[in-house]
Amino acid sequence: MSVAEPSGTSPDRNASPGDGSGGRVPPRGPAGTEDGTSTSAGSAAPTQPTGKAGWRARLGAARRAVPAGVRATEAEALARAAVAAASTFPHGPVCCYLPLPSEPGSPAMLDALRAAGRQVLLPVVPPDRYAGEGPSALYWAPYLGTHALVDGPMGLRQPAEAWRGPAAVAEAALVLVPALAVDRRGVRLGRGAGWYDRTLPLARRGTPLVAVVRDEEVVEALPTEPHDVRMTHVLTPGHGWRAIRASPALLD
C-alpha cells in the first residue's frame, strides 16, 4: 500500500503514496498559480516549481494524465525490474508497498516477488495513528496476496494480521519506496506527511533504498530539507534498477 497522509497533510509517501509526473519538464502555469510555478523575467516561459508544493502539484497532474495502457505496460516492466533488483540481494525480505491507482506499478510487482521466493512486507499504518494523530514510523506485515488485504485507514489496503513493529524494516534486504520523483542526488519527493521519513532511518546501514518512479520522474534537482532520507537506487520501467550515485548519466 502506498501510505496516505492524515487529513490536513499531504502524504509523505505520496499522496498515498503517489502521484508523479509524466515528465521531466518545467511546469506550465503563470507566475503565482497554485502549482508553484513561476516565469522568467521578460518571458512567458515558466521555470520549474520553486518548492515541494509546486512539484507535487505538477507531478500529480502529469501522473493522472498517463493513459491506462501505458500504466499497464509500465507496471509489467516494474514487476520484472523489481525481481531483478531483489535477486541481487538474496537474503532477507523485501519491504515494498501496494501501489495506488495513480502510482507506478501494480499488485503484480508484489506477486512477482513472492513467485520468485521472496517474503514481501507491506507497510501498515500503526493503530495509534488511526485517529489522525500524525505520522510515526510504519508497522510492517507479510503480503500473502490481494485476497488477504483489508481496508485500512485513509482508504488504504493493508494486511489484516501478523503486524510487526517498525523495527521489521531493519531485516529488509532492500526497501522499495513510493515516490513522486527522485533526483540525481537521491533526493526523494513524497507526499509530505513524513511516514517514510520516520521509517527509513530504521533500516540497516547499507540497505538499498529504492525509489520507484516513472522514467520521466527522475529529475535534475528537487527541493530538500534536513530530514529527507536520500535514496540509493531508482527503479523505473524503461531503465530498470540503477544505483543513483554510480550513474552520472542517470538522466540520459
Protein described:
This protein has 252 residues and is of the alpha/beta class. Helices cover 19% and strands 16% of the residues. β1 (94-95), α3 and β2 form a beta-alpha-beta unit. α2 runs parallel beside α3. The longest helix has 20 residues, at 68-87. The two termini are 30 Å apart.
Kindly report how far apart the N and C termini lie.
30 Å
- Tell me the fraction of residues in β-strands, as a range: 15-25%
Q: What is the count of DSSP helices, taking H or I runs of 4+ residues?
A: 4
Low-confidence stretches: 4-46
Question: How confident overall, as mean pLDDT?
Answer: 80
Rough outline:
globular
Structural class label: alpha/beta
What is the tally of beta strands?
Answer: 12
Q: What proportion of the residues is helical, as a percent range?
A: 10-25%
Q: In a few lines, what is going on in this structure?
A:
The chain is α/β, with parallel strands linked by helices and 252 residues long. The protein contains 4 helices and 12 strands, in the order ααβαβββββββαββββ.
